[in-house]
Structures are given as structure tokens and as C-alpha cells.
From TrEMBL, chain A:
Name of the protein described by the UniProt record: ABC transporter permease subunit
Subcellular location: Cell membrane
Organism: Pseudooceanicola spongiae
Residue span(s) of domain ABC transmembrane type-1: 59-272, 351-545
CDD domains for the chain: TM_PBP2
Any one GO biological process: transmembrane transport
Main location as per UniProt: membrane
Entry's family note: Belongs to the binding-protein-dependent transport system permease family.
Amino acid sequence: MRQPTLRRAVLSLVALLGVLPILAGLWQSLRASFGILPALGATTLSPAPWGQLMQLPGLTTSLALTLTTGLGATLIAFVLVVALCAARADRAPVPPRLLAPFLAAPHAAMAIGLAFLIAPSGWIARALAQVLGWSTPPLWITVNDPHGFALILGLVIKEVPFLLLVTLSALSQIPLRQSLITGRALGYGAGALWLKLVLPQIWPLIRLPLMVVLAYALSNVDMALILGPATPPTLAVLLARLFSDPDTAKLLPASAGAILQALLVLASFAALWATARLTGWAGRIWLRKGTRGPHSALGPLPALTATALLALGALSMAALLVWSLAWRWPFPRLAPESWSLSAWDTSTAPLTTTLLLALTTTLLSTLLAVAWLEGEDRARRRTPWAEALIYLPLLVPQISFLYGLNILFLRIGISGGMGAVIWAQTLFVFPYVMLTLSAPWRALDPRLTRTAAALGAGPWRQLIAVKLPALLRPLLTAAAIGVAVSVAQYLPTLFMGAGRIATLTTEAVTLASGSDRRITGATATLQAALPLLAYLIAFALPALVHRNRRALNGGHTAWA
Amino acid sequence: MRLPFAATALALTLSATPALADWSETLAAARGQTVYFNAWGGDARTNAFIDWVGQQTEARFGVSVQQVKLSDTAEAVTRVLSEKAAGQDSDGSVDLIWINGPNFLAMKAQGLLHGPFVSDLPNARYLDLTTGSAATTDFTVPVEGMESPWRLAKFVFVTDSARVTTPPTSMAAFADWAAAHPGRMTHPDASNFMGATFLKQALVELAPDPSALQAPVTDATYATQTAPLWDWYETLRPNLWRQGTAFPENQSVQQQMLNDAEIDIAMSFDPASTAAAIDQGLLPDTARVFVPEGGTIGNVSFVAIPYNAAHSAGAEVVANFLLAPETQAHMQNIEVLGSFSVLDPAKLDDTARAAFDALPSAPALPTLADLGPTLLEPHPSWTTRLTEDWARRITR
């Protein structure tokens, strides 16, 4: 029996509260990019803002930088993850548990830590100074280097764990063992086997997360601001500056830039699609030729690279913690000269607000995701076009629609309150929760619900008594990701909260514009600790609840 | 019975004074309001001072203050503008903004400000409000009562006296100093107000006719007045940190670089900030302030109220409290904020003057005499042209 009611209700809700605001925001930006922004008294349709945008000094360099850092970081992260998995095809290359801290750490916090690590006066240089006897920092060009290498490094450190986790999840959804056994029996070498048999199977499952990574790498503001080049910066940073220019007329070219940013991301998606198509076509020829490839494994290079990256990430987080406990820490000392807890002696209001927002948006998003997936089960059909829409907030650059969206929120009179921030954050939390939960949900053994139905349980009882308990681990993992995403939101919290809603992230970014690394360290540590706590609960609670349910506790879900 | 009559007459006269009558109405309307004070939040001491102001106004007038910490003042301008875009002409989210210069000009020109209100404030009597005085002009733009002053800003350089014993004594001398110490100095990006001020400071010293800078810029005056500046800058730039191809985001990042010993010279718009930073462990004990012999650019920081502020009465009460002599003396205390007062010393009574005289000092805190003369800010249009020109020269 098909029951489409729930599915229809959830679909309309997502369309009304999720898709419409983004389209409205984009529409406002588009209008402004052609000279229509009544608040400024601009009411004549004209392409002049585009002309002003093109005249900005360094725009071409800026665009080139955006493309090289965004595409470069995504490509490196993807190749590394594929190489890691291919090198150790039959088991997880890194225990997923170890990845949690890297997923939990917000981008801005990681960037601040990394900036200290690699700066000419940073930890690495201080270690060298001990040996080489430097008394002043070397003239290195590391952070904010003109080619954006530091930014690429930061993005790769942050995206590799995410892509790795997604790939491991995808691997758990395909008949991996059978593929490997068949491949080996046919005499394929490890690398060739992975590329020929495994990658084509998981590609449809990891394509969307890869697009999310690509969109983020091309349009992020926080990491690019801290690690990226400055004269000129990447397009997103250039736009963030234009949007906050005292000359309000700059809002028009800024809006044109916002549309350009969206087009840039769209073009990159098209390029990704075309590359995938071409590779698939060429790969089929390669496959038919039947070459078995070398038998030797890929060697230790991928694992070494990944370990080095994770070590840099871990040191970055450690640097933040040490700074938060320091009083004076001058160059070239490896450890602070004097210690103090004063950085931790701050108001607890941002912490409370952050917690409240994280719990509310995560609860809403998880409920909505369960409703969506359950609606799908009951209607016995999936709606690919609607699924694509869920991910719209992750694929459209934030800066392209947030300004317009704020005007919309003001019109309906909800800007500046908790409600507006919860709504805006949920736009971003929900897709991540869906991304995490949908695969294990759909992979749930259908015999469980069939048995329940045969025993006379109705749809609600099947959901509450069978599905949700069996899916406790993925549900909690999705919720933990939700918490991490909510905690990390900067632009939506700032724009929709009219600056009045202070969270750990808005505080951390504001403080990063000040000079006190110690307070920044304390805030960023807290900012990373909250999601980490959520991950710990997500790992510990199912282990406790299911301590005598081996099948639910033994790693059968993607995230075990 | 002459005396009671005189007292009654005096009381009648007082209540008949419109400003004071209005003020008691303002105080009544303000009671119970929460003022959202939008102020740059990058300085922990300023944040703590604003917190103190809120406690005082809460206790005295029943007006509480909530600081909205901005990373850039233009955020508040954009917010008011988007409220106007959405037709929200009352009950706006911004009640009071710490503002000056180009942001003030933008809001004034767009009609985004409430006022004039300064002459309604009882404590405005301690200000020198004669035309052309520092409290009535903001970057040469007439204030016309649309914003109320609260602290003095004066451009200063900071160095570590343990590494630099003879800092440059004029802007021209910076080029020689940098040639002798390549890579050891820089300035914030000119899109930041501190970077722009560094260029303006050099412009004021190097321009053939500094008085031309007080009028709006024209193509002709720009060409003649800035030619020596750019010659000087092209000599200086190759010897800047990273050969002048990259610049710190703002003065706070620059201060951190000084603390990290990556550079030897930083800058600030607050002469007391160095002593404060030493006190907080953010600079070495040997950090000192210095200024070129000809003096430096100074300006006044103001607070303004947006046209659609939800709590304009409360905002006026806070603006007035900021001008009270005891508030200004508390603010000038190096242990609190150390910012110089905006009040006219000649208009203070003896108790107020004594309060200022009794303030403590610190080794890194300069006296007013150390700071030399205060030079006038050029008209804002010069800033815009300078920073655009700079961006064009710097950008690859």
C-alpha cells in the first residue's frame, strides 16, 4: 500500500522553507546586479554594476586564484582519498573514530591554528630556531602567500577527513568484498582493481559530497580570509569586503560579484560532470583492453601524506589550546613564557546561545530528515529532483543569496531574532543531516520492517519500535554532524541575527580581527569542543544502549 | 519673602527651558529600554568599558546597554540600509553606532541618521561646539548635531625599544629606515582605515599644499598633491615586509606581528593602546609609542543614532552619559581604557579637572606633550581616491 501523504507534506515544507528563500535571495542579488536596489534609490535597469565589477583592480587575478585554490584543493583531496582507499582496499585506511575531531573542528578554528603553525613566527619556525639559533623570525612567505598554497593546504586538511568518511560510507553500500575477490581472481593489481571495479560503483554515491566540497572550496570566506592571499584575495573575500564597504553604492557591483560567484561554481560543476563523463568513456575502453595493472600496491606515499596532513591538523588544534592557556609567548620560545587562565574567564552567554541553536536546529533537521526518509518509504518512491533541491543551500555560495535573503526576512519582520537564525541555520544543517542519514537508512535490511508488518505493526509502530532503534547509531552520527554544522555557521548567524545573536563562532571571527590570540584560542577551542562532545556521545551512547546487541554494535552501519 | 520668590522664579525659568524639559521627557521615555550599541568588538578593553557604561546607565536611568560586536563598522551601516530596503522605517535593530569618517558620511548622505540631537544632550555644555572645532567636524564633514563625540583618536607608531633605538622622526625618514632594515616594517592593507591613515599621514606631510586636502578632491589637486607621496611610497615599498606584496589585514594583526617579532614597527589610533597591550601581555614590556616630529593626524570618535532606531531615547541617554565628566575621566584612566577625553578642559569645573589630574600613569603611556601637534584629517574623498589608487598600484 502506498501512502504518499507524509512525503507530500515534507516536500512542500522543504520547498517552502528551504528552496524558496534561496531563490528569493538569488533573485534580489540578480536584480541588484542589474542596478535595481530601491533602498539606494537605484531603480533603473542597467548593466553598469557589472562594468564596475570588471573594473575592480585585480579581478582577473582574483578569479584565477579562486579557481586554482578551489579546484586544486578539491582535486588533491579527492585523489588522496582515492589513493588511500585503493592502497588498502579491504579495510578502512584510518579508523573513522580518529576522523571525528577533524570533522568537529570548525573551518575558522582550524585555519587560525594552522596560520600560527606555519607562520614565520609559528611553531615550525620556532622549532627550527632552536636548532639554527634564530632570534628573529625568518622571511618566509607562508601564510597569505600570493599563490594561495596555504589556503589549499588548509582546505585539504579540512576536506580529506570529510571525503574519506563519505567514501568509507559509500564502500559499505556496495558489494565490496565480492568485487575485490572477483577482481583478484581475474588477476588485477590492487590499484587497477580499485579504479576499474570499485570507483565506478561508488562514484554516484560520492559525487554529491564532492560537489559540496568543491562549492565550499570555491566560495568560502572564513578560511580564505585567514590563510589566503590578500592583494588581491579570492573572489568570496573580495565580495565580503565590497558588501561591507562604507560606500553603500558598492552593494551593486558586490551583488554582480555574488552572481558571478554562483556562475563560477555552476561552471565548475559542469566541468566536473564533463570530466566524469569523459573519464567514464575513456575508462570503458581501458576496461575492455583488460590490462591487469601492476601487482605491487601503491606504496606508503598516500598513507604518509594523509598522516602528515592529519598531524598538521592535530598540531593546529593543539596550538589553539596552548595559546588559550598562555600569558606571554614571544618568539622563539616553543612553549609560553608565562601561563594564565584569564582567556577562559569570559561570558558564558555565547556558549549558551550556541548550544541552544545547535540543539534546536539539529532536532528540527533530524526530525525533518526522518520524516523525509520515512515518507519516501511509505510512498515507495524516491524523487531525485527533490533530493537535488535539498542540497541547494550547500551548492549555492552563501554570499550569493544571504544578503537578498536578509531583505526578505526583514520584509516579513523576523530578522534579528532567534527564529530567523534557527531558520537560516537549518537551511544548512538539514542537508548535512540528510547526506549522513540517507545512506544507512536506505541500506537498512528491509526484512526487519517486513517482519514487523507481518507481526501486525502499523507504519508508526514499525518506525518507532524497529527502524529508529536499529538506526540509533547513524541517527546520532547525523545529529553530531548537525551540531558541528550549526556551531560553525558564521555568515547566516551574522546576517539573520542582525549581529545580536552572539555565538562562539561570531565571537571567534570578531576576535580574530583583534590581536588577542589567547582569547581567540579559548573561543576556538570551545567551538571545536562542542561538536567533538556531540561525536563522543554519538559513539558512546549506541555502544552503551546496544551493548548486548552485537549486530547493531559491530560496524554494520556505515559509521561504525 | 524675596528668596522663595526668586527660587520659584528660577524653577519656572528652568522648566520653561525647552531643552531641559525635553530631556526629562527623554529620560522618562528611555526608562526600561535596552540600547543595542553597535561597536567594533576587536578590543577587549573597549568591550569591557561599554559593559561598564551599561551597568551605570542601568543603575542610574534604567537603560541597559547590549553591545553588538562588529568586526567592521560598515556592517551596521549595511544593516540599517537593508532595513530601509525592506521598508522598516521604525523599530530598527541598531540603536547606537560607534562611527566616524566615511561611514558617517555615507549614513548622513543616505539620510540614515536620527537628529540633530547633540544640542539636546545636557552634557553637550562641556564640549567646544564652535564651528570648525574637533567636536563639530568629522574628517572635515560638518557634524551638524547628527553624531555625538565620545573619545579622541590620534595616530601613533609603536615599536619595541629593545630592537629599535632610533625610530624615524618624519614620514620621509621612514623610507631611509626601511632601506636600512628591509622587511622589518609594514602597514595594514589600505582598505582598512589604519592602512589608509598611514597613507594620509604621509600625504599630509609630503603634499606641496596641505590646505588643499581640506577641500573635496579634484583630478587636478589629486595629481599635484599626491605626486611626492607616490614617489616616496615607491622607494619605501620594496623594503617593506614581503617586499610590499602583502599587507596585514588590520592594526591588530600588525600588533601581533610586532609581538611575534616579525616586524619592528606597528601603528595605532589610540596613544594609550600600547600601555594597555603591555598590561594585557599582548606586547613586550619594552614597547613604546613614537610620533613624527611634525605631529600626527587626529580625529574624534562619535556615536550616532539611526533614523529608524527602536530605542532612540535610550540611545540619547547613553550618548549623554558618555559625555559626563566622570565618565570621560574614568575612560581616560589607563587602567580602564586610557583614551583621551573629548571635553573642553576650559569648560570643566574644579572637581572634574581634579579627577582628570589624579589619573595614574604608566611607562609606555605618552603625555599629550609627547604626542606633538594634531593634524587635520583630509576630506573623505581623498581617502577614497588614495585607497583606490593604492589598490591599483599594489594589485598584480
